[in-house]
Amino acid sequence: xxKNPVNSIVITELRKSYERQTGSETTYAVDGxxxxxxxxxxxxLLGPSGCGKTTTLRCVAGLERxxxxxxxxxxxxxxxxxxxxxxxxxxxxxxxxxxxxxxxxHMTVLDNAAFPMRHGRNRRRGQDIRKRAMDMLEQVGLAPMxxxxxxxxxxxxxxxxxxxxxxxxxxxxxxxxxxxxxxxAKLRAKLRQELRSFQExxxxxxxxxxxxxxxxxALSDTVVVMNHGHVEQIDxxxxxxxxxxxxxxxxFIGSAxxxxxxxxxxxxxxxxxxxxxxxxxxxxxxxxxxxxHRPGSGGFVCARPENIEVRPVREEAPxxxxxxxxxxxxxxxxxxxxxxxxxRAADVPLTVSARAGLGCRxxxxxxxxxxxxxxxxxxx
Length: 380
Ligand code: ATP
Fold this sequence. Notes:
Strand order of the largest sheet: 7-8-9-3-10-11
Mean pLDDT: 88
Bound molecules: adenosine-5'-triphosphate
Distance between the termini: 38 Å
């Protein structure tokens, strides 16, 4: 049994190589990935193309045989190298919703929905199948279309059918591989809300794969950010945005000004670190390293565009407060609710999101202020 029964999936040190050799070294598509999927939660694997998300999901499904590590599901070990254990995909308590939905075109909507109850791991018999399938179609708004061919459904309706069919297999976990990626932007946004509300309504556990950060932030309870086969950070969406632990995460989630740090030391009083950058010394009250961090060099100051304040200067030599630096507006774009500025400070271009009424034009002298409370020092 799992040490932690509230987790539907526990993945430990998962590795997968594809027999590709670089010199004498094996290349790992997934290289020591560990994370949990707690019961009832929506967990997303997020990262750029080629980072190993789909391979991880396919190892969980049993469609790929991992090279190392361990996978537990519903309290049972389904994969473990030392134990030589590999449970076949059809015997794992999962249902997969692929990119193309995997709807059978030669079957009606009802027969598609009923499929896992007739052929799956939790096979049933008799009239109960039709009744359960109809009840589920009712809940996802497809009951009036039960007798149509599945190909006569719209993209959104096909997604609902794929979701309904997956749930009718009574899975411990639903695995979803970029199920919205074939749809246009407007439909994507609508369907991701629908997907999330179905997931909450049915209380199902979901492991989702996407490279779209907006989708990951909007849908997930927890996001596992991957890069080059490794996990960069596992956190709630708000924490990933506000407290990225690496320059990669800061840059991948939202937009960020990343200033290389020449020298960093802990502040004597009041916490935080002073990071020396080309713009000047910046006080960061958020830091990816602890208070006992020794002075050193390297890393980045990370400031989100909305967390840099800008004030126009009218006088010749403006008085500069703490954390303030002189700059010049290089470009200014009016975006309705805000101004998107590029301000050059000590030759460093900073992207700043300012209020629409600020009245800054290219060439204007300004003062920029890094808000210490929201500015982070990232060690890497
Ligand atoms: P995407 O968002 O583009 O789908 P991903 O993060 O899901 O990317 P994977 O599909 O898991 O990435 O691929 C991870 C790495 O493994 C990539 O470098 C890819 O080229 C490689 N890879 C995937 N499948 C195979 C395979 N069957 N044989 C060899 N290499 C593979």
